[in-house]
Amino acid sequence: MSGGTGxxxxxxxxxxxxxxxxxxxxxxxGFPDVRVLGVADLDEERARAQAQAHGVPHSGGVASVLALxxxxxxxxxxxxxxxxxxxxxxxxxxxHVYGEKPLALAPVDGAKILAEAQEHGLRVGSAPDTFLGxxxxxxxxxxxxxxxxxxxxxxxxxxxxxxxxxxxxxxxxFQHGAGPLFDIGPYYLTALVALFGPxxxxxxxxxxxxxxxxxxxxxxxGTEFAVEVPTHVHALLDFTGGPSASAxxxxxxxxxxxxxxxxxxxxxxxxxDPNTFEGPLRVRAFGQEEWRELPVTGTTAGRGIxxxxxxxxxxxxxxxxxxxDLAQHVxxxxxxxxxxxxxxxxxxxxxxxxxxxxxxxxxxxxxxTLG
Length: 371
Ligand SMILES: NC(=O)c1ccc[n+]([C@@H]2O[C@H](COP(=O)([O-])OP(=O)(O)OC[C@H]3O[C@@H](n4cnc5c(N)ncnc54)[C@H](O)[C@@H]3O)[C@@H](O)[C@H]2O)c1
Known about the structure:
- By secondary structure, the chain is α/β, with parallel strands linked by helices.
- The chain is built from ten helices and 17 strands.
- The strands form three sheets. Strands 16-15-14-13-7-12-11-8-17 form a nine-stranded mixed β-sheet. A six-stranded parallel β-sheet has the order 3-2-1-4-5-6, with helices on both faces. It has a two-stranded antiparallel ribbon with strand order 9-10.
- Helix 8 (185-196) crosses helix 10 (324-343).
- The longest helix has 20 residues, at 324-343.
């Protein structure tokens, strides 16, 4: 792993100044170990407005932030179709890259990003970083402590009517690289892979309730657009280490529901929504009639803690947790689920997943650790 070359806070630039950039800019501005130096977008006016709103000194086109010598990490917040292109450009400019999910549209593109990084001695990180938040870290500690015994299975459900009601440009969320499997799936699947390790094989079915949807908010409200991907997916997963899981990803339900439960030989743990950083976390042992609430400790600083963990690892030479290798396994998993549904076959995975170490107790984003 590359690291230990510089000193002090790590310079960061954002590429993509859309909806999610607010959360990153807010969180990263509060971390003394990183310094946000630039915001870029195809729409330079949008980049300028976001930079101004968050006190970032530079804004402009992508090439202009890649040319800033103090920028060490490019945070890629573009739409999925642009993830590989922007990541590759950043790596070729000598920058580490941390991107929003999914890593790329297809595993072959993810593999190219990882190979490019390796060639240049640079790092790749990827969202989601919710598994580093207080809720899922507390869950991982509970499982590691043996609270539910030996993990045996998991059940995950994420369903609702879909994001076109609130996202002002939701078309990309219904195109290749998104849909409920690739857009929301990464939160659930990364949480499960972080707990259980890699998936060995999958089988799946998929459906699409409607071929067209209508934008519900913003300047394009009322505009119809085409749905290009399945919007209801059921998957069965066999983990290499033994446990199995069932997972449902849907934008086709009028009933919002998000749940993820892990069952072991001694009881069941109810995890928080893995698209959040908080609790609640509950356990119910065999023979108990009620759930028992568990304490949740750790950071709730939000999207960007994976960038901070990577920044600190760059200085310290350690492994970062929200890694490109983990995201590549999750990408291969989602892609294999989609293939399994298309082909009506049980399919095996090829990639491994790195073991994800817990964050140390007391890991604090607001603390300056890099001098
Ligand atoms: N919106 C959310 O709630 C949310 C939550 C978590 C993760 N994400 C992820 O964040 C990413 C961005 O989502 P969003 O909702 O902010 O999208 P968005 O459409 O609001 O913003 C994307 C921005 O990227 C810019 N862009 C596209 N291609 C580019 C390129 N080649 N170079 C430079 N800029 C480019 C667009 O001009 C746009 O401003 C996606 O991967 C999405 O899955 C979004």
